[in-house]
Amino acid sequence: MTKIGYLLPTRENIMRGVHEARPLIDAAKRAEALGFDSLWIGDSLFSRPRYDPLTLLAGIASAVPRVMLGTAVLLPALRNPVILAQQLATIDQISEGRLVIGAGIGADLPPIHAEFKAASVPFEKRVGRMIEGFELCRALWTGEPVTWDGRWTLKDAVVAPTPYRPGGPPIWLAANVDPGVRRAARLYDGWFPIGPTAEAIKAQHALLAETARAAGRETPITAVYLTVCVGADGATSEQQINAYLEDYYGAPADLLRQVQACFGGTVEDVLAFIRSFVDAGADHIVLRIVGDHNATLDTLAQHRTDI
């Protein structure tokens, strides 16, 4: 059965002026009790202010003992990989192997450029920095001395703890374009697109499988990030999504929906929308909810077997 995850509203709570972490931890506990398979946290410095994902995941890992926990998605290029390796290994130990690293390179948009500049990281080098950074993380996760001569320099460095899971937590690469799909197939454990349509996912899933086969690898996990709004009718729910997107990103909804999979409607229509991505090859669905989170979680949990 396809796994279903819930994106915790770390950004939305800040937008509403709620800075306390307890509501997010309570929401995580509630989603686990309802039978959701995974919990996710987004990442941003100041373009979309929110909680630090790694710190919050460590807290949730202690409070929520069973489900998968992940970032949707982390910008690893903003972080020193030696420090990141230690942080991720620590969270993997706290969660006893439930951590998944959803990771991306960052969209080519002015606010993201500003974040990279603030972190003293060249935006144009972010792909190579991410790839090398994760290579270094994986080397450090072995627990053996690491000597490295690249963007970072180490000599016989050992970082502890090692992750709970041998080899370290799986890495799922966020990518909507073909070069990113190929990169996920060759280098990582999962592919984590955000849309925009089930048809596009189906075509790129075929590319993922073909590229992995050519590289002598199994096809990585496919996890799709969807934005949904369950309401009494489609028109009202679609309007809610458009208002949400424009408030969240500060950009026109019609442009955002060209790259993001979003849908609002009755519960039956939303379930059909989700199933279309399952049919396209998704092994895992991560839901960003617009509207009443508790009511939507309850409704989707009641219809879990229909997905």
Overall description:
The chain is α/β, with parallel strands linked by helices and 307 residues long. The protein has a domain of 167 residues: Luciferase-like domain (TIM Barrel, Alpha-Beta Barrel). It is built from 12 helices and 11 strands. Helix 3 packs parallel to helix 4, helix 4 packs across helix 6 and helix 7 packs across helix 8.
List keywords for this structure.
12 helices; 45% helix; TIM Barrel; two-stranded antiparallel sheet; alpha/beta; 307 residues; globular; 8-stranded parallel barrel
- The geometry reads as globular
Order of helices and strands: EHHEHEHEHHEEEHEHEHHEHEH
- Strand % is 15-25%
**Average pLDDT rating:** 97
Q: How many β-strand runs? A: 11
Largest sheet: 8 strands, parallel, barrel
Q: Which ranges are low-confidence, i.e. pLDDT below 50, for 5 or more consecutive residues?
A: none
Q: Just give the CATH class of the domain at 3-169.
A: Alpha Beta
**Cα radius of gyration in angstroms:** 19 Å
CATH superfamily of the domain at 3-169: Luciferase-like domain
- According to CATH, the fold-level topology of the domain at 3-169 is TIM Barrel
Quaternary state reads single chain
Count of helix runs: 12
- Give the helix proportion (percent range): 40-55%
CATH-level-2 architecture of the domain at 3-169: Alpha-Beta Barrel
**N- to C-terminal separation?**
8 Å
Helix and strand content put the structural class at: alpha/beta
